[in-house]
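Side project, low priority. Logging it here so it doesn't get lost.
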Amino acid sequence: MLRIRARQLSAAVTTAAMAMTVTGALAFTAQAAPVPKAESKAKVLNWLAHKHSDTMPRVLRKGSDWTSYAYLYDLKKGKPGKKIGDATAHCSAVEVTPHSVVAQCQSVLRTDDGSITLSGTIDHRRSDTYGGDAAITGGTGKYEDAEGQVEAVFHGDYAKLRVKLDD
């Protein structure tokens, strides 16, 4: 009986020693692992969309859908530069009050270099400036591996777009 307990104790000590050795090796490996590089800076594109047409109904209710089409320009020093493409959006009203609408929108920004697809919400006030953020959900061409977000500020028929592409 004493021999069995001695063997069990010996096995337990051996198992504990092996566990400590493996843990120490893992800790050493983790310390020896290369430090990840600092995040590279995101690339920021400033664009301006000028609405050409939309199908937004005059009376909005929850669930109302509409589409918009806009011309897309480079934004230089606060002024539109050259035309670089177009933008489309399909939106649905998810909350409607007498003074505002929250809309869920899926959008595509098309340029000669490729397209960027977006998904986000817009807090649409019936007057003044309004805006929202959208996640970049994909892209094509130059933007094939696009990740990041777009901040949009709307005023009248114009939208200033700050496209932040994570590297």
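Brief comment: Strands lie at 43-54, 65-76, 79-96, 100-111, 114-125, 130-139, 148-155, 158-165.
Revisit when time allows.
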